[in-house]
Every structure is written in C-alpha cells, then in structure tokens.
Amino acid sequence: MPTGSERVVLLPGDGIGPDVAAEARLVLEALVPEVELDERLLGGAAIRATGSPLPQETVDTCLSAVAVLKGPVGDPEFDAADVRPEQGLLGLRAALDTYANLRPAMLGDVDVLIVRELVGGLYFGARGTREDGTVFDTCEYHPRQVERIVRRGFRLAESRRGLLTSVDKANVLETSRLWRRIVDELAPEFPNVRVEHMLVDNAAMQLATTPQQFDVIVTENMFGDILSDLAAAMTGGLGLAPSASLGDSGPGIFEPVHGSAPDIAGRGIANPAGMLRSTALMLEHGLGRPAEAAALEAAVEIALVNTPTPDLGGRATTSDASDAVVASLERA
Ligand code: NAD
Ligand code: IPM
Ligand code: MN
To answer: pTM score, two decimals?
Structure first.
C-alpha cells in the first residue's frame, strides 16, 4: 500500500470530466510518476454504480489521501431527480471541510484571486417546502465560519498586493452585515492590507469593466460561485479557470471552475486547461512541489497559444492540447 503522502484521489466526474481527468493523469504520470493516482466515483457516475453521489468509500479514500483532484460533476439526466450528482460534491467539500475556495483569474494586467467561502451560506442552510407549497432555502453563517475565511483572505492579500475587497449585499442581508462587521474587526490585525467593501451587484459590474482594480476578493459561497465564472470569462474563458479548495489541515480538493459541459460532452473537444491548471495548484498546495507546478503552468501557457481548442477559436482536440503540454514538459 502506498502511504497517504504519496496518494492522490482522482475523481473523474461526469460529462467532459473523464476526458479532462484522463489528460491530467497523463500529465501527472509524466511529471511525478512516483505519485499514485487512486481513481474513485463521485457524482452521476457514482449514482449509476452505487445509488449514492458520494459513496462512503470515496469519502474515506479522500480523507486518507494527500490531495483530491476532481473533474466536474453534473448530468442533465439527474436534474429533476431527488438524488443528484451535485449533492455528492457538496458532501465531499463538507466532509473535508475545505472552506477556502481559491479561484485565481489572470490575463495581461488582470490578476485577481477570488476567495470564496465554500461550506456555508445558502448551499448548506435549512431548506424545504411548507404545507402551503412555499419552497425555501436559507442563507446562514456563524461568526466563526465568516472569521476563518475572512482571515484567509487577509493573509492572501498580505502576501500579494495588499488590497482586500470584501463583497457582500449588506444593504439587504443580515448575513452580509455580519460579514462586513467581521471584516472591519479583523482589519487592524492586518495593517499592511487596505480593505474595501463592495456590494455584489456593483462588484459584478466592476469585474466586467475594470478587473485590473482587484487583488483579492473575499466573499460568501453563492456570490463567489457567480463572480468566479465572470472572472473566468474576463480572463480567457471558463475552460481555462482552475481552483483550489483548502481547509486548515487535511487534503485539499483541486478542480476546474467549469462544469460537466453537457453540450460538448463526448466530442473530445473540451479544453483541458482548467483541469491542468488545477493540477498545477495541487502540485503546489497539495503536494508541496512548486517547481513541478511552475513547469506545468508554463507548459499550459504554451499549449494555449500553439494548440487552442474550439472554445478559444482553434481546432485542437482535448488530447491534442494535453499532448502539447506533455511534449513541452518533456522538452523543458
Ligand atoms: P458548464 O461550466 O458545464 O458549461 C458552460 C459553458 O461553458 C458550456 O457552453 C460549455 O460547453 C462551456 N465549457 C465549460 N467547460 C469547458 C471546457 N473545459 N472546454 C470548453 N468549453 C467548456 O456549466 P453548465 O452548463 O451550467 O452546467 C453543466 C453541469 O455542470 C450542471 O450539472 C452543473 O451542476 C455542473 N457543474 C459542476 C461543477 C463542478 O463539478 N465543480 C461546476 C459547474 C457546473
Ligand atoms: C462550482 C459549481 C458548484 C457550486 C455546483 C456544481 C454545486 O458551480 O464549483 O462552481 O456551485 O459550487
Ligand atoms: Mn460554479
């Protein structure tokens, strides 16, 4: 048995997930052949095989690994079902308590890091249907949940350009007023960080018009979900955007920002860059291998220019693009 420190769990997921996960496997086998990839089920694939989107065996295997590399989950087949692939993903994030979801978006003079709270808010609050047919989802945050993600945002801003934009809807929501208060309470601990508060609707407009103004954005779960797709679109496209979900200890989850893309699934044309950049984040944050991470980042950059997939206006297939990545890794 390989030790946990040498074992990564690979969760291919659904739709284009298995395509991009297969390319991540090839890249890791070329770059760090000593790391074992333990493939498990999550999402729609897991429902079909076991009835559950998150089999206990998957949770246990992830908990004892050094990191989890994950493709997207989701399948239109289950959209109206009671048991859905996305429940598996939320369960996994909660089980690993990966509360800090880092979503970098970089292009030219734009370099923004979205720090999204990942295990609270509307995604995890009370929900249900009342007798009269009213359906409800609840946004809930405990001060401790806010404090730990905001602190993470401050530390990251401190290590970058020193600007923290806290995004909320404090003109309407109680949870946002709590959020704003905690940001202001923590600010004196970080004298080298300039803090600004921004309402989420304005933040979307500012991201779409002048994304260069941002350094670190810290925000709650749902706002971060929406703003991170926008930030991806502003910096090259959804197919390119990676993410790292980290807790305080234990394995992180590394996954692209995009979904299972049912509209192009099975056609072999998905852009593998988001998955490969997530693999680079895993090499850096999960496996402590910054040199390999930088080499992979650089190889993806080259492939994006020379071997673009259709979403970038090119004609390369998924495997053409990742072959180009492996080839440039081998040349380096
Ligand atoms: P999506 O991100 O799957 O697709 C949005 C658009 O972007 C589509 O036109 C798609 O073709 C394109 N796109 C996405 N990734 C691409 C890639 N790598 N290369 C080229 N084009 C790409 O969003 P959606 O259609 O709203 O959601 C589809 C499913 O994915 C849903 O079931 C949703 O729940 C799920 N989803 C999962 C995750 C995740 O597992 N982290 C993230 C987002 C959505
Ligand atoms: C993401 C996805 C997920 C989310 C869904 C699939 C549950 O959109 O990772 O951005 O909303 O967190
Ligand atoms: Mn999303």
So the answer is: 0.97
